[in-house]
Amino acid sequence: MKYYIFFVLLLVGGYKLGKLIIEGKTKQVFDLPDIAGHCLLLNKDRITAGDGVKAHDMEGKAAISNQTNAKVFEILKSAGIKTAFVEMVSPTAFVSKKCDMVPIEWVTRRLATGSFLKRNPEVPEGYRFTPPKQETFFKDDANHDPQWSEEQIISAKFNVNGLLIGQDEVDYMRKCTILVFEILEKAWALRDCALIDMKIEFGVDTEGNILLADVIDSDSWRLWPSGDKRLMVDKQVYRNLTNVTAADLDTVKRNFGWVKDQLDYLKPTIHHKVVVFMGSPADQEHCQKIAKAARDIGLNVDLRVTSAHKATEETLHIMRQYEDTHGALVFIAVAGRSNGLGPVLSGNTSYPVINCPPPSDKLVQVLKYFKLLLFM
């Protein structure tokens, strides 16, 4: 008797799927055996609330969530945020760097609402936090994700993919969390929408880097058009439902689709320029490094050679030409020795001026000497 074994090769977006790493309420995560250090996240047509107590199938949600997530991460990546997101590869899936997740949910709030009011009933709804309030919650469904302090996170000594989560790591994630919120808050303001609060998660990749990871979609935030709670277009609409009908689900899906479409308008083309002034051609190598760093995050850069000491009027004339033709400007001054280029520029413009002289061999030697003294 002969036995035949048949293997089914599962492909998504042209990627061969490996083992199922983990399955959650709204997504599956698969290994990608052909791409080391990467995985594929496949969204489900499923919406849940209350730690999964309330759950419904919602046809089309997977595609909407996937596109929303991709657009949000592209906005954040263009702003220089380090993320695990790589690319959307199918209507319902995207490729990500493989991460072990830090078991903490990072929440940022601009206005007091939702669970914050339950924990702080003496605070009126709509109380505005300036700066935004940050909260952290330990991911534990069985105990309804209890709120944790910074001290609890550090004391837990989480070892995530070989990285011990200590004070420095917590500080980085906290700063990144507020930065993510403020970027998206300002972006949504362009569409007259108020970002009320949001939650994000971080992971550690195989090289030990902390990255913004998981998913950011309409399940992740509260969003109020015109700042009006009655117009909310987020998952809170679903949370508030007691008896969920097909019409209710259509409304929620329509809201999610609207959010996904609005994200196309959140990356306006800004007529901007970073102008690097160098005192002499000898500074060009240092200036090229600055230009590369700026271009890597999507900025337009010009390099100009001019001496504020020998040709002050020419320097100011070049600067005024940029002021007349660009709405968003940053000047970077690179000059050695006298180092007077930065002060000349900053004294004659209202635009930001960053002074970044090239390091000299003598300065490097002095710094090494100071370092030696510090550790003797």
UniProtKB/TrEMBL annotation:
<dbReference type="GO" id="GO:0016831">
    <property type="term" value="F:carboxy-lyase activity"/>
</dbReference>
<dbReference type="InterPro" id="IPR028923">
    <property type="entry name" value="SAICAR_synt/ADE2_N"/>
</dbReference>
<comment type="similarity">
    <text>In the C-terminal section; belongs to the AIR carboxylase family. Class II subfamily.</text>
</comment>
<comment type="pathway">
    <text>Purine metabolism; IMP biosynthesis via de novo pathway; 5-amino-1-(5-phospho-D-ribosyl)imidazole-4-carboxamide from 5-amino-1-(5-phospho-D-ribosyl)imidazole-4-carboxylate: step 1/2.</text>
</comment>
<comment type="pathway">
    <text>Purine metabolism; IMP biosynthesis via de novo pathway; 5-amino-1-(5-phospho-D-ribosyl)imidazole-4-carboxylate from 5-amino-1-(5-phospho-D-ribosyl)imidazole (carboxylase route): step 1/1.</text>
</comment>
<dbReference type="GO" id="GO:0004639">
    <property type="term" value="F:phosphoribosylaminoimidazolesuccinocarboxamide synthase activity"/>
</dbReference>
<dbReference type="InterPro" id="IPR018236">
    <property type="entry name" value="SAICAR_synthetase_CS"/>
</dbReference>
<keyword id="KW-0511">Multifunctional enzyme</keyword>
<dbReference type="GO" id="GO:0006189">
    <property type="term" value="P:'de novo' IMP biosynthetic process"/>
</dbReference>
<comment type="similarity">
    <text>In the N-terminal section; belongs to the SAICAR synthetase family.</text>
</comment>
<dbReference type="InterPro" id="IPR050089">
    <property type="entry name" value="SAICAR_synthetase"/>
</dbReference>
<keyword id="KW-0067">ATP-binding</keyword>
<dbReference type="GO" id="GO:0005524">
    <property type="term" value="F:ATP binding"/>
</dbReference>
<keyword id="KW-0210">Decarboxylase</keyword>
<dbReference type="InterPro" id="IPR000031">
    <property type="entry name" value="PurE_dom"/>
</dbReference>
<feature type="domain" description="PurE">
    <location>
        <begin position="272"/>
        <end position="374"/>
    </location>
</feature>
<keyword id="KW-0658">Purine biosynthesis</keyword>
<dbReference type="Pfam" id="PF01259">
    <property type="entry name" value="SAICAR_synt"/>
</dbReference>
<keyword id="KW-0436">Ligase</keyword>
<keyword id="KW-0456">Lyase</keyword>
<dbReference type="GO" id="GO:0005829">
    <property type="term" value="C:cytosol"/>
</dbReference>
<dbReference type="Pfam" id="PF00731">
    <property type="entry name" value="AIRC"/>
</dbReference>
<protein>
    <recommendedName>
        <fullName>PurE domain-containing protein</fullName>
    </recommendedName>
</protein>
<keyword id="KW-0547">Nucleotide-binding</keyword>
